[in-house]
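Case study B.
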Amino acid sequence: MFVSYKWLEEYIDLTDVTPEELAEKITRSGIEVEGVEVPAEGIKNVVIGHVVSCEKHPEADKLNICQVDVGEEENVQIICGAPNVAEGQKVAVAKVGAVLPGNFKIKKAKLRGEASHGMICSLQELGVEAKLVEKKYAEGIFNFPQNAEVGADALEALMLDDAILELGLTPNRADAMSMIGVAYETGAILDRPVKLPELGYETAAERAEDAIKVTVEAVEENPIYLAKVVKGVKVGESPQWMKNRLVAAGIRPHNNVVDITNYILIEYGQPLHAFDLDQIGTGEIVVRLAKQNEKIKTLDEAERTLNENHLVITNGEVPMAIAGVMGGYDSEVTDKTVNVVIESAYFAPSTVRQTSKELGLRSEASSRFEKGVDPKRASLAAERAAQLLSLYADGEVLSGTSASENMVIKEKEISISLEKINRVTGTELSEQDVLEIFRRLQIEASVNSGLITVSAPTRRGDLEIEEDLIEEVARLYGYDNIPMTLPVHETNPGGLSPRQQKRRLIRQTMEGAGLVQAVTYSLTNQQKVTEFALAAKTPVELMMPMSEERSQLRQSIIPQLLESVAYNSARQKDSSAFYETGSVFLADGSELPNEDEHLAGALTGLWQQHPWQGEKKPVDFYVAKGMLDALWEKLGISDEIRYEASNMDHMHPGRTAAVLYKEKQVGVVGQVHPVKAKELDLKETYVFEIKLEDIYGDETAPLKYNAIPRYPSISRDIALVTDRSVDAGTLESIIKDAGGKLLKNVQLFDLYQGDKMEEGKKSLAFSLTYMDPERTLTDEEVVKAHDQVLEAVKEKTGAALRS
Amino acid sequence: MEQRLQELKQEALEKIQHAADLKELNDVRVAYLGKKGPITEVLKGMGKLSAEERPKMGALANEVRDTITNAIEEKQEGLEKEAVEKQLAEESIDVTLPGRPVPAGHAHPLTTVIEEIEDLFISMGYTVEEGPEVEKDYYNFEALNLPKGHPARDMQDSFYITEDVLLRTHTSPVQARTMERHAGKGPVKIICPGKVYRRDNDDATHSHQFMQIEGLVVDENIRMSDLKGTLNVFAKKMFGEDREIRLRPSFFPFTEPSVEMDISCKICGGKGCSVCKGTGWIEILGAGMVHPNVLKMAGFDPEKYTGFAFGMGPERIAMLKYGIDDIRHFYTNDDRFLKQFARKEIR
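Model:
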């Protein structure tokens, strides 16, 4: 809503309150003022001039040589290229020395040999938005009315020296979608009275009811319909002040009849519609629901197809307007119109909202009706329209109103105790303070047996419950004046849940391991949605996606991380190491999908490097695995974790492992299949993804100190030759099982499968540590345990000691 | 004999003096002080001496031995020091060559902001609650005083999965779920961070996926002044002690009265600049007193309980704090963006 400061002054005294101060006050007490704009800012020295003569330029077809009276001793000569310039016009003249928007300075000039001392301006050249310039002047210069005073300030005459406050209205404050509504608000803030327009005009003997009959068939959708009839109107230009105000409000002037309806729309917030009485043809107006597939050509010359939910204004035969949304083309007021019917109605908000939405058609009218207009304004606005049409269109207003009224207009009574107001806000207001606030709001309030009872005026449809009254009191008392306290109550200590603590631990561990946290989108496309999923499910799909690319909910984080890796490598970043934790969405037949939290990582390029020492360590499987191992260590679950060679779509078949926690697969780690990597423009890339739910679910083991052993441990190394197919993990478990309780640690320290080995064989060397915390081990005991290990390994894998 | 001892001493001291390294020095030690050395040899002749001369000669022999031993030790120390110095000189390096890079990861800036807010509220006794991102329409809208047909819940604005299930448009459903779990009994004191989704085209200021963090306190006697005090603590801790807050009336279906909070602009100090669009204030969050309908829906008696709620966007806060101009940066994971947040800001 654009509010003209100068127009607002008509309803309220704004002495001593600058537009900026007013904006700040309005913002602080309820409606955000998003900006204050002075249209004439940066423009100066533009006056009203009288074109005394206008002749064709001898050297240029499109130019005219004008002698213009600008209220100075001598006329000035101005060369003007506007197609509509003519002798006798009153025009806006930017004199030599004037400044126009964009810091455009007007200087003396010569145009094809003729001197030009200034410029005759179009409204656009004065900074008025093109869409607000009336069609007549859209392609040329603007003409003032003939009575305009020569030499006067043109900016003032055009009200461009006004200040426009842009209100950002929340949906509950539909009451401020009118100048009068803003005046009430301003009045409450400044504690100044509101002056409403004085209504009154002469009427003809003929009765409106005889000229047009009103029948409403859908009273629920249209509880109030009022029609005023004005005959003998002269359609023409509106007075300059009205045009100025409309432009300030963001509405393009058309002709006096249409302008008056728009003016009242802004003034009262009541949308009106003007019909050409003679075009109605039938002498009657019937309001009814549209028929299925009924058609109407609207003002914007588009043909609209209606349905049975839409309300239409008909002439008893065909629709003439879509109620509360837009008028019809055929019954529109034109230059030839003589007799006018003014519609002022109350349409049900839900009907207008639905119609406007289904037709994809929004207007100043629909945006007000759908939020609910003040039902009392319908008759006020109708009277105002009749008055202005008689004043500015020379119309003759028929007596009375042709009406259909089926609504009991009642003010809602709401009661609240002073104690509650103070208890909820934390203030210590007196009864008097509260009553004073309602008085300023021009809302009736009284005290009955300790309760403050308020009659919510119809213009304030947002006041319904006690809390609405609390807000009124609080905002006018001033949010600034509310004290600052902290809740006084029994408090439990705050904190993170075990799950949240584990998430942070995971984050710190991953970052400590050198990974950078990424955040990617949950929505992906049909192809990626199940890629890399640990257990793919039927995808969860959006009903109305914005694009195919973001239409389904991810089941793995890896595809998005790979996208991030590819994004960076396309920007000369060859090495990347990302991790992310977040939800994946797995349908399980219930109403909401299962949301599993996953940890994923993606690594490519160099892992470590120290260039001047010639060290470059590319990422490999074991780098990724080592990060996970660090995590298991931190979470204290290393003993419950096992890796197993595994195979998975889009993963390298020989470099992928399933991660098992308590013998149940919780994740995967490995190299992205080179074919897939190529498809994604990736070099050798390693990924992992872990389902965290099971790990989150288990409590961590209690931390308990073990005494530092006082007896030395004994180490023995063994190098075993086995078939290549025997993996190290298997050997390690066999060793651990066979070593007995004295075997405390097994560490693989060498792998050899080079030339010196027999075909198909490899050598693995382990270091075994034996210890008894209670005493010093004897050699015999160690030999015995060690022999058992060797025996078991030989028996179970056919491995032999390397000679 | 005495003369012989004096000669040996002289000889030995000279050799010690000239010993070039530890080995030569050791040779001297073995040669003079060893069991087969000349001093031992000389002392073997002690038997031939008179009873008077014997102790005298014994003392002299000891003195010679001690002198040589001391000289050797002294020399040894010197030689060792020399050797160390030589080694150190050989070992010296160019300390200005680059060090070995330690792979260092770091958090996403949104995580940093969210955890900072979490920790601040935890210190004030809040717990952190979470909920599903795919949510029932009931919790996302209905339980929050946004019944079906309410203009603020357009299908066009939300990602629906079925008629009754959608991607949550705010983290408020977590509030509704938590209150419901409390079954009408306070206090509830939570903050709820998480991802939310809206049907917006991605551009510099819009993202179809973004973060939100909301807070809720419900108990007997929770006042609007408590909300104001709480937000003031938050604003000063998050943005600096010198910041002022301003509450403005606003509208949200789930709170009444509703407020929006601005903080004074740091850039211009409140005078007005391009960041605050000339107003001197920057909008930070929305808040209000929990609407009685919301309390009722969750089983709380609005006559007994009151509460406040607030909600903010970590992206917006990060953008303001760090001067980021495009919300899409948060989801592109461009290394040139992320690495700027590797450093920890400690205030």
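The CA atoms of residues 106 and 650 of chain A lie 70 Å apart. The remaining cases will be described in the next quarterly update.
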